Amino acid sequence: MDITLLVKLTSKAWSLKILALMHAGTPGRQAPLIAATNASRSAFASSLDHLVQLGLLEKNPGHGHPLRPEFRLTARGVPLAAVAARIIETAPDEAAFSIIRRSWAVPILAVTSKPTRFSIIKSELGSVTDRALSKSLCSLEDLQWLKREIDVSKRAPFPTYLAVNAGSQINQAIHLTT
After folding, report:
1. What is the pTM of this model?
2. 86: part of which helix (H) or strand (E)?
3. Fewer CB atoms inside 10 A, N or C side of the chain?
């Protein structure tokens, strides 16, 4: 999966969950999707609009009310919905899912399939700030989804990061299609 698309996709908290639910067969109407996500209406609406703008969802013509439209996955959205479902399956509880919902967690795990330096992660993710990246790395390390090792073989020691445990499963779920 293209890392730029993954960063855009995960920039809204409920995007992955909505795609996973649509993949699982939840009706594309707002009421069943809101009930299944437990999201607030405003956060849900923002994520839904974001998915439409990315071209992953579209209004289902001839279905639903103009004020309460029904949505369906686009041809571009179908494979990404399968990836989202695999990612969501790796979150065994609410605490793990709350980490997945954060903007940078999934993209970081996507680029750490092998030991990777901070500067490389930052350059691959593009628009991430040092602070956001550092906080995300710490939270993923606390969950034991990311392993930090210090390489002392060079003159200046530096840390590398590697996706492990559930983080490795998320990495594999993302790269299964590529």
Report:
1. 0.87
2. helix 77-89
3. C
Class of residue 43 by CB neighbours under 10 A (exposed 0-12, middle 13-18, buried 19+): middle
* Assigned CATH topology for domain 1-89: Arc Repressor Mutant, subunit A (1.10.10)
User: What is the number of helices (H) and of strands (E) in the chain?
Assistant: 10, 5
How many whole angstroms from its chain centre is CA 46? 15
Task: Tell me phi and psi for residue 118, to 5 degrees.
Answer: -55, -50
Instruction: Name beta bridge partners: 70.
Output: 29
Assigned fold of 92-178: Arc Repressor Mutant, subunit A (1.10.10)
Q: What is the pLDDT of residues 147-176, one digit of tens each?
A: 999 988 878 888 999 999 999 999 999 987
Same fold, 1-89 and 92-178: yes
